[in-house]
Design a protein that fits this description.
This protein has 661 residues and is α+β, with helices and mostly antiparallel strands. The chain has 3 domains: 41-116 and 132-142, no CATH class; 162-399, 3-Layer(aba) Sandwich (Beta-lactamase); 493-660, 7 Propeller (Methylamine Dehydrogenase, Chain H). Strands 1, 2, 3, 4, 5, 6, 7 and 8 form an 8-stranded antiparallel beta sheet that branches. A 6-stranded mixed beta sheet has the order 9-11-10-16-15-14, with helices on both faces. Strands 19-18-17-36 form a 4-stranded antiparallel beta sheet, with no helix packed on it. A hairpin with a 4-residue loop joins strand 10 (180-187) and strand 11 (192-198). Helix 3 runs antiparallel to helix 10 and helix 5 packs across helix 6 (245-255). It is elongated.
Length: 661
C-alpha cells in the first residue's frame, strides 16, 4: 500500500491526538493533515464481505467532518464508531450507526480521549478512561447496480445451459418468494448444466468469491511446481471455514488483486465473472452458472487443480463453521455438501448466495443459487435458497435422465477449431503445435509447453473431457503416465499423474475408443508384442482393462487410428524395423490382421498418425513422415481399409524434433 492510502488516522480525526500505535505501513502525521491545516486525508478500510477501499476524511470527525469512499458503489451512512482499548486496558466498543456493511480501519491510532476521535454523540456511548487505542469503524451502503454498471459488458453463458427438467416446480416455488434469483445446476464431468432465472441472473459475489480466490492461490502454487505454503494454508482455512475477511484480503493482495482474479476466471472457464474495477473482491460480479463451473474444478479432475489441492479445498468447504452451514446444504444428508455462502446488505435489500457440490449417491451435482433485490431480512433469502436446494435434491435423478454426453472433438485437434493439428516435441523438451489448415497443410510451429525433457513418449489422448479439444498423454522418465488437458488459450495444463509402471512398454498409442464403449483407450505394447488396453474415463482416470493379444510381435512402433472398417471401434497400425507398415482391425478383445500393408517407412526419421488431417467424410487417419533430420515432411493420406496414398510434400519442418504426437 502507498503512503497516500495509509495516511495516519491520528492526523485526520482531531487536533488533540497522540502518537500512532505501532503500524509499520503508516506514515507520520503531516503538518497539512485535517485538524491542523484542513487538508483531506485517506485511510484504507476493510469492509465485511467486500474487501478494501479507501476512505477520504475531510475535516475533523470530532467536530462534524465528513467521510466518503474513493470507489463507486460504496457510500458512508451514519456516524463513525471505534473498537479498541483505553488507558486501563479495558475494551472500548462504539458501534457505527446506519444500516449496511461494517468497515474497519486496517491501521490503529492513539488519542488522548475518545472525544478527540468521534462526534460527541458517539463518544458519550462508551465509558473510556483517558487515552484510547484502536481502529475507526464506519457503516457503508453497497450500491450493487453501480458496481455492475462499471463491470465489462459481455453476454453471460446462461443461454448455453438447458432448462431444468423440473423447471415448473422451481418456477412455482420462486413465484411465491421475494427478490431476484439465479439458479444453476451442473453434473460434473458431463458438460451438462441447467439454469433458471427469476428477474436477473447476474449478482455480486460477496463471500462466495473466496472459493475462486482459493483456486487462484492453488493454481499459483501449481504453476511454481510447489505445494501450498504454510502461510497460504493459514489464510485459506479461516477464509473458507469462518469467512475471514482479513485473510481473504491478504490472499487477494498477494495474488495481485483484480487482474489476477480476472486471469483466474479465464483459466477456470468462468466467462461471465468479472473482478470489481475498484479492486474489491466481494463486489466481483458473476452468475450462478459460472459458480457451478468453479465448483466442478473441485468435484472432478478437470486438469486445472491437482488432486491434493482439490481434496484440500473440499475438506475446507465441508468443515465450515456451524453458523455458515446453510443454503445449498438443505436436502442432502448431513456432511455431503461442500459449501460456501456469501451475504451482503445493499441499497435495495440483501445479496445472499450459496454454492456447493452435493456428492451423495448416484447423481452428484454442483449448484449455485444467487439472490438479491429483497428488502426483507437475510433469513428470508436463506429460506429461498434452501427451498430451491430441496427441490433440486428431490428431483436429482431427473438430471441423469436428461443427460447425454457431449460429443468429443476430433482426435488430434488441439485447439478445437475442427481441424487436426500436428504436435511435436524437441530434444530440449518443448512441445510445439503446428496448426492444421484442414487440407493437409500446417502453419508455422508454436511452442505451447516447456519443461518436458524428461519424458520418453508422447501421444494424443483424444478429447478426454469433451470440451472440443484433443488432450495429450505423456510418459515421464520414471514410468508414470501423465495427462495434459488442452486449454482454450491454446496451451496445456500441468501434467496430471494417471498411473505408474509404464516404463516396460516399448510403445504406446491413444486417442480413440477401441472397444466401442464410449470411453477413450490407451494401448501399450510389451517387449514380446502383447498389447494391453487401458481405459481412460472422461474424468481423467486410467484403469487397466486387459490384454488384446500379441498382434504386433514384429512391429515395435504402434499407432491407434480411426475406425477403418466402420464397426465403431478404433483400429491399429504397426511399423516394423525393416520399414513395413500393417493395419489391424479391433475386435472385442483382440485384433485381426488386414491386407493393408506398405513398405519403405524406414527411410524416415519420424513417423506418426496425428489424425484425419484433410477432414474426409470417412475420417481415415493420415500419416506424417519426416526425413531423418526433419527438414522434409511428407503426408500420406489414409485410404479405405487402413491403406495409404502418397507421399505429398507439406513444406513443413520438423528439424530438431524427437517425438510426434
Amino acid at each position: 500500500m502507498t503512503s497516500r492510502r495509509t495516511t495516519l488516522l491520528t492526523a485526520v480525526l482531531g487536533t488533540g491526538l497522540l502518537a500512532v500505535a505501532s503500524a509499520p505501513a503508516l506514515a507520520a502525521p503531516s503538518p497539512g493533515a485535517p485538524g491542523t491545516s484542513g487538508a483531506d486525508s485517506e485511510l484504507t478500510m476493510l469492509c465485511d464481505g467486500v474487501g478494501e477501499d479507501v476512505l477520504t476524511i475531510t475535516g475533523d470527525l470530532s467536530a462534524g467532518g465528513s467521510m466518503s469512499f474513493e470507489q463507486r458503489g460504496l457510500s458512508v451512512v451514519g456516524r463513525p464508531g471505534f473498537t479498541g482499548t483505553d488507558a486501563d486496558g479495558d475494551r472500548v466498543v462504539v458501534e457505527p450507526t446506519g444500516e449496511g456493511v461494517t468497515c474497519s480501519a486496517r491501521s490503529t491510532s492513539t488519542a488522548g480521549s475518545l472525544a478527540e476521535l468521534l462526534p460527541a454523540r458517539q463518544a458519550d456511548q462508551a465509558d473510556a478512561d483517558g487515552q484510547v487505542e484502536g481502529r475507526l469503524t464506519v457503516t457503508a451502503e453497497v450500491d450493487a447496480d453501480a458496481v455492475a454498471a462499471a463491470a465489462p459488458r459481455q453476454d453471460t453463458r446462461s443461454a448455453a445451459a438447458a432448462a431444468l427438467p423440473f423447471e415448473a416446480e422451481v418456477r412455482r416455488y420462486l413465484a411465491s418468494r421475494p427478490g431476484a434469483v439465479g439458479v444453476a445446476v451442473r453434473l460434473p464431468g458431463t458438460g451438462e448444466s441447467w439454469t433458471y432465472t427469476k428477474t436477473s441472473a447476474r449478482n455480486v459475489t460477496a463471500s462466495i468469491v473466496k472459493v475462486e480466490i482459493m483456486a487462484a492461490v492453488m493454481m499459483r502454487a501449481q504453476d511454481a511446481g510447489r505445494s501450498l505454503t504454510s502461510w497460504e494454508r493459514s489464510k485459506i482455512e479461516p477464509m473458507i471455514r469462518t469467512s475471514d475477511n482479513a485473510a481473504t484480503t491478504d490472499l487477494f493482495n498477494s495474488l495481485g488483486g483484480r487482474a489476477a482474479l480476472d486471469r483466474a476466471s479465464d483459466r477456470l472457464g468462468m466467462d461471465a465473472t468479472y473482478a470489481d474495477t475498484g479492486g474489491r473482491w466481494g463486489l466481483t460480479t458473476t452468475t450462478a452458472l459460472d459458480q457451478t463451473t468453479l465448483m466442478e474444478h473441485f468435484a472432478r479432475p478437470t486438469g486445472t487443480l491437482s488432486y491434493s489441492n482439490r481434496t484440500y479445498g473440499l475438506r475446507m468447504m465441508r468443515s465450515v463453521s456451524s453458523a455458515q452451514d446453510w443454503g445449498v446444504t438443505a436436502g442432502p444428508p448431513s456432511g455431503q455438501v461442500a459449501v460456501k455462502n456469501g451475504w451482503l446488505p445493499r441499497t435495495d435489500g440483501w445479496h445472499v448466495n450459496s454454492i456447493g457440490w452435493q456428492s451423495y449417491g448416484e447423481a452428484d451435482y454442483t449448484i449455485g443459487v444467487l439472490t438479491h433485490d429483497d428488502p426483507g431480512a437475510m433469513s428470508t433469502q436463506i429460506s429461498t435458497i434452501e427451498g430451491v436446494s430441496r427441490i433440486v435434491w428431490r428431483n436429482r435423478l431427473a438430471l441423469l435422465e436428461a443427460t447425454e454426453p457431449e460429443p468429443r472433438g476430433r482426435s488430434g485437434d488441439l485447439d478445437g477449431d475442427g481441424r487436426v493439428d500436428l504436435g511435436s516435441v524437441s530434444a530440449g523438451g518443448y512441445l510445439y503445435v503446428h496448426r492444421g489448415d484442414g487440407s493437409g497443410g500446417f502453419a508455422t510451429r508454436r511452442a505451447i509447453k516447456p519443461g518436458l525433457g524428461s519424458y520418453t513418449w508422447f501421444g494424443n489422448a483424444g478429447d478426454v473431457n469433451r470440451d472440443g479439444r484433443s488432450d495429450v498423454l505423456a510418459r515421464d522418465g520414471d514410468g508414470v503416465m501423465r495427462l495434459m488437458y488442452s486449454t482454450s488459450s491454446g496451451g496445456l495444463t500441468y501434467a496430471k499423474a494417471l498411473r505408474p509402471w509404464f516404463a516396460s512398454y516399448t510403445d504406446l498409442a491413444g486417442g480413440y475408443d477401441v472397444d466401442g464403449d464410449g470411453n477413450l483407450d490407451l494401448l501399450g505394447r510389451l517387449p514380446g508384442g502383447e498389447v494391453v488396453r487401458f481405459e481412460l474415463t472422461d474424468e481423467g482416470e486410467l484403469t487397466k482393462a486387459g490384454s488384446m493379444g500379441s498382434p504386433v510381435r514384429w512391429y515395435p512402433e504402434i499407432d491407434l487410428v480411426g475406425d477403418v472398417n466402420g464397426d465403431g471401434r478404433a483400429d491399429l497400425r504397426g511399423r516394423a524395423t525393416g520399414g513395413r507398415m500393417r493395419t489391424w482391425t479391433a475386435g472385442a478383445s483382440s485384433f485381426a490382421t488386414t491386407s493393408a500393408t506398405s513398405t519403405g517407412w524406414d527411410r524416415y526419421g519420424l513417423v506418426g498418425s496425428p489424425g484425419d488431417l484433410n477432414g474426409t467424410a470417412s475420417r481415415q487417419d493420415d500419416v506424417i513422415a519426416a526425413s531423418p533430420y526433419g527438414s522434409a515432411v511428407d503426408l500420406y493420406y489414409g485410404t479405405g481399409s487402413g491403406g495409404t496414398s502418397g507421399p505429398v510434400p507439406t513444406g513443413a519442418s520438423l528439424t530438431g524434433m524427437e517425438h510426434l504426437l
